[in-house]
Amino acid sequence: MKKTTALIFCLIGWFSLIGQYYLTIENRTTSILEANFRFFTYFTILTNIIVSVYLTILAFKNKSNEKSGILTAITVYITIVGFIYQIILRGTWNPTGFQRLIDEMLHSVMPVLTIIFWYLFENKADLKYSQILKWTIFPILYLIVILIRGSFSGFYPYPFVDVGSFGLMKVLINSLWITVFFIGLSLLYIKIGKLISKS
């Protein structure tokens, strides 16, 4: 069941990513090279790639045991994608047609599917609060990279990290609040996981 579920979910993930890549290239207002750079600077895209790669590996690997905590970290990342989109970004644009479908797949469907997969298959009993520190490495590195690149290109993938509009201090404060949310969400997943494992 695990491998079948992983296969179905990863196919949905890859369909969403390929669809968004097609739309990005088709509707670009910059060079193809710059469009590609921008595509891979979105946390949504990177996180959906991580989810899809992880599920693909599970779908085709022979051994089904994997280190506890990896799936939880990935689930935290994609949950943040869903939350930030629904709360902050949804009202900033109104996609239509195929773009709307892909938008919902990346920001709504994949987060829900990943949470379901986590609930069904994560080894929750072995989750440790000390793992959270390692989980923060990816989002912190991501923030550093987009801020450095934005200082040269002037492009920031999300309005709340736009140094040109808000200034560096405001962006760092925004990032701090997101980090606090990330840690809180990680704690919540571990707590829920431990409760489920004991039930």
Strand content: under 5%
Query: Rough shape?
Result: globular
Q: The biggest beta sheet, please?
A: none
Number of beta strands: 0
Number of domains: 1
Residue windows where pLDDT falls under 50 for at least 5 positions? none
Mean pLDDT: 93
Order of helical and strand elements? HHHHHHHHH
Structural class: mainly alpha
Cα-to-Cα separation, first versus last residue: 22 Å
Radius of gyration: 17 Å
Tally of helical segments? 9
- Amount of helix: over 70%
Layout of helices and strands:
Blueprint: H1 2-26, H2 32-39, H3 43-60, H4 70-89, H5 97-121, H6 132-135, H7 137-153, H8 163-166, H9 168-198
Provide key terms for this protein.
199 residues
Describe this structure in words.
With 199 residues, this protein is mostly helical. It has one domain (2-198). 76% of the residues lie in helices and 0% in strands. It is built from nine helices and no strands. It is globular and about 50 Å long. The model has no long low-confidence stretch (mean pLDDT 93).
Concise account of the structure shown:
With about 200 residues, the chain is mainly α. Helices cover about 75% and strands about 0% of the residues.
